[in-house]
Amino acid sequence: MTAQTPPFRDSQLPFAKRIDDLLSRLTLDERVAMLHQFGPAVERLGIAAFRTGQEALHGVAWMGPATVFPQAVGLGATWNEELVRRVGEAVSTEARAMRSRDDRVGLNVWAPTVNLLRHPLWGRNEEGYSEDPRLTSAIATAYTRGLRGDHPAYWRTAPVLKHWLAHNNETDRATASSSVRPRVLHEYDLRAFRETVEAGAVAGVMPAYNLVNGRPNHVSPYLAEQLRAWTDQDLLVCSDAGAPSNLVDSEHYFDTHEEATAAALLAGVDSFTDHGTDSSKIVERVRGALDQGLLTEADIDTAVRRQLSVRFRLGEFDPLLDPYADAKDFDTPAHRALAREAAEQAIVLLKNDGLLPLTGDGTRIAVVGLLADECKLDWYSGTLIHRSTPLEGLYDRFGADRVDFAEGVDRVRLKTSDGTYLSVPPADDAGEEVRGAEGALDPALLAGRTDLPPLTADAVGTELALIDWGEGVLTLRAPDGRYLSVAEDGFVRASADQPGGWVVQETFRLEPRAFREGGHGNGKGHGNGHLLRHVGTGRYVSVTADGVKVADENPAVLELEITERGESAVARAAASADVVLVVAGNDPHINGRETEDRTTLALPAHQRRLLDAARAANPRTALILTSSYPYAIDTADLPAVLWTAHGGQAAGTALARVLAGDVSPAGRLPQTWYASDTDLPGLLDYDVIGGRQTYLYFEGTPLFPFGHGLSYASFAYGDLAARVGEESAHVTFTVTNTGDTAADEVAQLYGRPVSPSVPRPRRELLAHRRVHLPAGATTELSFELALSAFEFWDVAHGVRRLEPGGYELLAGASAEDIRLSATIEPAGTPPAPRPVLERGLRSADFDEQRGAEIVDRTKRSGDAVTPGGANADVGRTAELMYQACDFGLDPGTRSVTVEVSGEGTLELALDDGRAIAHLDIAPTTGPYAYTSVTTPFDASGVHDLRVELRGPLRLAHVGFSG
Q1: Please, which residues have CB within 8 angstroms of residue 241's CB and are 6 or more apart in sequence?
Q2: For the purposes of burial, counting CB atoms within 10 Å of the CB of 819, is it exposed (0-12), middle (13-18) or buried (19 or more)?
Q3: Helix, strand, coil share (%) of the chain residues, nearest 5
Q4: Are strands 50-51 and 236-237 parallel, antiparallel or unpaired?
């Protein structure tokens, strides 16, 4: 090191010392500026600008063309960690290559999403890996290892896990609170994050928009108490976009932005994503918090240190030593092959009565359906360089002369009240412009095209392709393939290559005219008259002298003239084919996406019509579901059903290879497919234990179970053996390919306690292995299971505990297809009663509850319980049950003291039903103004305790004394 080289530039020093030196050289203003997502350069020290956040969920997103891999839920369906690691490696390599020519591309990647797929109606189902925490963490760990790279010091990219914590609803997502009991917190929601962080390839996390137990995730004490306790690394916590402002503006949790910003930073948020590229608001708020004494410079330094730690690991300050600095691999043959391999491995064969594979010479195939010639992207996709639809894949594999196609759209004209028709004018210069092809730091700001002429009305009009995506949401497409869209000037143009954008501008609703006029929506008196409402703006289509536009006044009354129903075209194609492939599913930008949950598991009516028409015309009909989420469908009359998530750039090629038998399908469902909406819990019911949710607790009969997936081969399981050591159980069994074709099998190992003392999972995934076996081959699989895998969270003592007794090991091909079983008996810790005289009861540590909701005890930490949920509007009552409370030997307990706020009554009763104490709570001054109320309580020995709450009160703690 020369005299002129500062220590932070000295690569021989440890990162920690270099960060100390750099922090000491930065002024307070420079450090404060770094707290915003877009940190400015510090030119006097030669430090470049830095931004946190680069979307990279299944490829580099938003920054233009890149390799597009299957959606995350599809990667989860591969059950293949090594494959997913290679996908992460390819994505991060492309991020490096793209950054070398465009410095807008960031290396702090916001991926993967480890939110558990608890509820299949969640709009962002496509972003997660599984409903199971172990499978989720296994896939997420593999992806982060690929993103990170394998150098001991320098990282290829720095992954940030999304979205901390218990986040599965888009409905009211910025204001809704997830009530998460301690067992669910520790056994379910925290677990996927914890195991991924502990694996060592995670640079940070992003808190979610929602609240957990009444407290916004951006001020969660779990960031310090849990997350930062799992690793010695400096984890970078990046806020979600706009969430810091939400603490005041929508959640009203704090009175001022200075208070909110200080609270978030003290809780552990290190980078504030707010107000786009404009950092001035956050800088002003941090400065205000400093001036008010809410923050100290040391607090600022703590956050900046964590950011600098990531920047040093990314090699920013050691460009000559950074092993990834010269990465150039982009859209390589290897990446294309990997995209196809991932898409193939993600395909799940749900049912097959012998129709597949399509191996007959000269078999004539009809491929029909709204997604038959589509390669759909989602909000977190890059721009396609290569594209393969099911139709294109089948053409390539079987030959165009053997494949017929019918999309199944309804062909329509829209007739105005004066007898003219909506018309798409010629646009010779429409070109092939693709939304987002040039990249954008915030694609939500991308504007629609205004360079094309708007629609007009004339005597002939234009025949449009109408698709009803469900819930009455329509798209309309011109003959040249462009979708009708509305730009900022309000005119309707055929201008979009696909529906998309943060606010989709390509969706409409046809509403009976009487609906707008305050009638009952039957259009009586107007014949077939409808109004066409643009969903994005809420305005109605109007015909003006300047063209067709959306406006608040003078809506056009339109008559829908149907030239051809989609099912007619489908029936014609199906009738002349040997096999029919109906490709159905969703558009990831419509009815189920970020900001919008689904309302039903049902396949949209338009697509049900097409499926019914195909089946009626030809019983040899297979259903191929290409979707971001599960559906509830009737499969009784279908000889074959497949599911794949949107498979990225190679989706069509991969599907054709599986259908042809070139590849045997071996994807497995990463979440339960329920048979009906009636099987589902409420969207905001996060109690997977009490609500009997996911395969872990669901007691009904699923349409298809967790882990399900068929093959063109068959497999036999045998020789299950297990032995228990002091810290682990060693399990082996064999798998044999008894079929006549080479194939992959996903062997799954589950466990469950034989006689649990508390509700435990019906079965829980302990391990899995995807293996490739030639026909007739046998392999022995070996698993080493830490005994901690059998533990549960003991709410009585606030620890994880291995319960003594037998544990059944279940090996098989899905959660419901168990082939082998054995029982082990590890040494455990016997249960002990709750020491309530010494510790009392934290109210949230209940064993069972009815009508209760967990809320925040204070704005900084702690839980309380209040009547809520379904009982909020019917008298506000709740009941809590605490098992095995030890009230001491006779004379035992003589009094009880409750810490409570609000007003109402509390009644305490023992397991024999006797009411032991009744407390009337006088009103306190607010929800956080707790008072202690004491009353006599006469009990001894060990009993279950029931506490009934009535009224708008919050119970924090129950204490006992002798």
Answers
A1: 273, 274
A2: middle
A3: 25, 30, 45
A4: unpaired
Q: Is 186 left (phi over 0), alpha (psi -120 to 50) or beta?
A: alpha
Task: Give the model's pLDDT for residue 433.
Answer: 67
Strands 579-585 and 215-216: unpaired
Q: Which structure tokens are listed for 385?
A: 């360089």
Count CB-CB contacts under 10 A for residue 769. Answer: 17
Query: What gap in Å lies between CA 344 and CA 667, rounded to an integer?
Result: 8
β-bridge partners, 160? 204
Q: In this structure, is the dihedral angle defined by the CA atoms of residues 191, 193, 194 and 195, taken in order, positive or negative?
A: positive
Q: What average pLDDT does the segment 489-494 reach?
A: 97
Residues contacting residue 16 through CB under 8 Å, at least 6 positions apart:
none
What six digits make up the tokens of 90? 């390819």
257-267 helix and 297-313 helix, angle to the nearest 10 degrees: 50
Backbone angles phi, psi at 655, to 5 degrees: -60, -45
Place of tokens 């696909």: 498
Least confident of 408-422, 592-606, 649-663, 861-875: 861-875
The CA-based diameter of the chain, rounded to the nearest angstrom, is 96
**Residue 57 CB coordination number (10 Å):** 25
Average pLDDT (233-240) is 97
Give catalytic residue positions: 240
φ, ψ for residue 908, nearest 5 deg = -110, 130
Residue 778 near residue 734 (C-beta atoms within 8 A): yes
For 598, the 3-state DSSP assignment is: coil
- Return the beta strands (E) in 28-146 as ranges: 38-39, 50-51, 54-55, 109-110
- Mapped onto helix, strand or coil, the DSSP state of residue 244 is helix
Residues linked to residue 54 through DSSP beta bridges, in sequence order = 109
On the question of pLDDT at 7 being above 90, the answer is yes
Give CA–CA dist 362/582, Å, rounded.
20
User: Where does 601-684 show beta strands of DSSP type E?
Assistant: 621-626, 640-644
Burial string for 308-347 (b: 16+ CB within 10 Å, else e) reads: bbbbbbbbbbbeeebebbebeebbeeebbebbbbbbbbbb
pLDDT digits (tens, 9 = 90+) for 332-356: 999 999 999 999 999 999 999 999 9
Asked if residues 535 and 526 have their Cβ atoms less than 8 Å apart, the reply is: no
Contact (Cβ atoms closer than 8 angstroms) between residue 683 and residue 122: yes
Q: Say if residues 484 and 508 touch (Cβ distance below 8 Å).
A: yes
Confidence of residue 429 (pLDDT cuts 50, 70, 90): low
- Give per-residue burial for 102-141: e unless 16+ CB within 10 Å, then b: eeebbbbbbbbbbbbbbbbbbbbbbbbbbbbbbbbbbbbb
Question: What's the distance, Cα to Cα, between the start and end of the chain in Å?
Answer: 70
Q: Are 730 and 720 in contact (CB under 8 A)?
A: no
The identity of residue 818, as a single letter, is: I
Round the average pLDDT of the chain to a whole number and report it: 95
CA distance 623 to 390: 13
Tell me the mean pLDDT in the region 618-626.
Answer: 98
**Averaged over 79-89, what is the pLDDT?**
98
Per DSSP bridges, beta strands 211-212 and 558-564 are unpaired
Q: How far apart are CA 193 and CA 188, in angstroms?
A: 10
Taking only the tens place, the pLDDT of each residue in 761-809 is 999 999 999 999 999 999 999 999 999 999 999 999 999 999 999 999 9
The three-state secondary structure class of 651 is helix
Cα–Cα dist 477/407, whole Å: 13
Q: Count the neighbouring beta carbons within 10 Å of the beta carbon of residue 254.
A: 18
What is the rounded CA–CA span in Å between residue 268 and residue 257?
A: 16
What single DSSP character describes residue 667? Answer: -
